[in-house]
């Protein structure tokens, strides 16, 4: 790797860290391909306070420590079912980014509660790294709940809507 590439990678990582801080994100992961066998994988994260309602997947090495607690406690299972992300009709974010409920600030929202949508209809936009990603309806149904506000920052897997 040349010094010029190294300097560019350092600048890129600093920019990712700044993006993490500006958007109050906890983690960001990016993969860059330069050539066939040359690339850069970057994962930038920061510590965040974990609350009782937050579920964080455990790394493989810690999985046995969490398995008995999950199997032994039936009460948290009932609480977890109240989580919108566990709802069978939940539409979750496929990426970290900023949510936009309408195509332009002066336009009406893509959908509202009570609207009937078809599979593939655009529900909202998630902006990630200055790219507008249209999030399609994974199935046909009726929009029962919208769980995010316009311009909210979401993480991977965050529940966005409930479609039944």
Question: Could you walk me through the main structural features you see in this protein, from its secondary elements to its overall organization?
Answer:
With 164 residues, this protein is of the alpha+beta class. Helices cover 23% and strands 32% of the residues. The chain contains 3 helices and 10 strands, in the order H-E-E-H-H-E-E-E-E-E-E-E-E. Strands 3-10-8-5 form a 4-stranded antiparallel β-sheet, with no helix packed on it. Strands 7-6-4-9 form a 4-stranded antiparallel β-sheet, with no helix packed on it. Strands 1-2 form a two-stranded antiparallel sheet. The longest helix is centred in the N-terminal third of the chain and has 20 residues, at 3-22. 13% of the residues are buried.
The strand count comes to 10
Provide the CATH topology of the largest domain: OB fold (Dihydrolipoamide Acetyltransferase, E2P)
Shape: elongated
Termini Cα gap:
52 Å
Within CATH, the superfamily of the largest domain carries the name RNA polymerase II/Efflux pump adaptor protein, barrel-sandwich hybrid domain
Number of domains: 2
The radius of gyration over CA amounts to: 19 Å
What is the chain-wise order of helices and strands? Answer: HEEHHEEEEEEEE
What is the overall pLDDT average? Answer: 76
Amount of helix: 10-25%
Compute the number of helices: 3
Structural class: alpha+beta
Which blocks of ≥5 consecutive residues have pLDDT under 50?
Answer: 49-56, 60-80
Class of the largest domain, according to the CATH hierarchy?
Mainly Beta
